[in-house]
Design goal:
- With 379 residues, this protein is mainly alpha-helical.
- It folds into 4 domains: 6-57, no CATH class; 66-172, DNA polymerase, domain 1; 180-348, Intergrase catalytic core (hpI Integrase, Chain A); 350-379.
- The chain is built from 14 helices and 8 strands.
- It has helices spanning 37-52, 66-80, 84-101, 111-123, 133-152, 180-190, 210-222, 226-230, 262-272, 294-304, 312-324, 328-335, 340-346, 351-378; strands spanning 6-9, 12-19, 22-31, 194-197, 203-206, 237-238, 243-246, 256-259.
- The longest helix is centred in the C-terminal third of the chain and has 28 residues, at 351-378.
- The radius of gyration is 28 Å and the shape is elongated.
């Protein structure tokens, strides 16, 4: 027997309730199964609240399954996103979102459904392991954009995510500075075949990973973002002047010209040999470029016993540059930042550097004190 207020019509749950002497009915868009009964009651509750508030025009919500709605949204978002990498990140989040909400009508998704999604992502499953809180944060931000689009498309009337706590990104701060020993081990291993014992207890061979080696070296030497390196083309490099151009970015400051280090110039010259155009880091499919190197990076880290994300090569560059040169304005331009405050997030000054700087300061104060004493004695 259906819950009070619900009835099956044409295989779907319909609601019926009274308000101020008038009967209101509607289709929840949910298949009439016991599993969907709670969601149907939630849809009825929302409808009743809209009637109470006088918002009856919103009762004509168009029923649309999440998976079909997601396809339309992603096509729209791809054209609206300022960067191709932003569109790719959103599309990646929707792989998991679609698995979770695939056949549900958009308007039936509740805050509790989203909380269950968070739990599922934290715990993982046989095919997908548990993810970090920052990944869940990215997923929920992508879902929020979708729900805003859904409201405009009349697929739902409210954003249930407003009642859900989005994980903080405070633990996602990247502040590891790659040590000289880690650097040597990483780049040596990336160019060599090596064995790892997998979770099933079997030993497997990995590597070499020349693309990983080259991308990581360029990030470390030039301070570029990973996606900026992987989207480099032959046309972006001027070997005569020894410069490369970053032509895409979310801000004007991200588009910049950088002077190449000798190592980077050598790497790119080898990759561009005999060509005047094309991707320097070609993808598996013809006409595409690399977009991620997560698996080879993780394999190398497992072999050398280190733990850091590839982006931290960029932080390491910023820290080394800051300590060696001490020009924050130049560093901001090289990193592609318009705001000097952003540079502070990238420079992680080492204790040896601050100690040396303090010794210089103390020496300067001793010298000043000495001069004052001499002046006093003369007077």
């Amino acid at each position: 027997m259906a819950a009070p207020g619900l009835r099956e019509v044409g295989g779907y749950w319909h609601y019926r309730f009274q308000h101020q002497g008038r009967e209101w009915t509607g289709n929840t868009g949910l298949v009439a199964t016991k599993r969907n009964e709670t969601a149907a009651l939630g849809a009825m509750s929302k409808a009743r609240e809209l009637v109470r508030q006088g918002l009856t025009d919103q009762l004509s919500t168009r029923t649309q399954r999440f998976d079909a709605a997601a396809e339309e949204f992603l096509r729209w978002h791809e054209g609206e996103a300022h960067k191709a990498s932003t569109a790719r990140r959103t599309k990646t989040s929707f792989v998991s979102l679609t698995l979770a909400f695939g056949n549900m009508p958009v308007h039936s998704i509740t805050a509790n459904d989203i909380e269950k999604f968070k739990t599922w992502r934290r715990q993982g499953d046989k095919e997908r392991g548990a993810v970090a809180e920052v990944t869940i944060r990215h997923d929920l931000h992508a879902l929020s954009l979708f729900l805003q689009y859904a409201i405009k498309s009349n697929w739902c009337t409210a954003n249930p995510l407003e009642a859900v706590k989005i994980p903080s990104d405070k633990n996602a701060v990247r502040d590891h500075v790659v040590t000289a020993a880690e650097e040597e081990a990483y780049f040596t291993t990336a160019l060599s075949p090596f064995e790892l014992i997998e979770e099933d207890g079997k030993k497997r061979t990995h590597g070499p990973f020349p693309a990983l080696h080259d991308v990581a070296r360029i990030i470390l030497d030039q301070g570029m973002r990973p996606d900026e390196v992987m989207s480099l083309r032959v046309e972006h490099v001027d070997f005569t002047k020894g410069t490369l151009r970053v032509v895409e970015g979310k801000t004007a400051a991200a588009k910049r010209v950088l002077e190449m280090t000798p190592a980077v110039k050598s790497i790119l010259a080898a990759r561009a040999a005999g060509r005047v155009a094309g991707w320097l880091f070609e993808g598996k499919k013809k006409g595409t470029h690399l977009t991620k190197l997560t698996n080879p990076h993780d394999a190398v880290l497992a072999k050398i016993g280190a733990s850091f994300v590839m982006y931290e090569f960029r932080h390491t560059f910023a820290t080394r540059f800051g300590e060696a040169v001490g020009d924050p304005i130049a560093l901001a331009a090289i990193l592609g930042h318009a705001d000097l405050k952003c540079v502070l997030k990238y420079c992680h000054t080492q204790e040896t550097h601050t100690s040396g700087a303090m010794k210089k300061y103390i020496a300067s104060q001793v010298a000043v004190a000495g001069q004052v004493s001499i002046a006093g004695a003369v007077n």
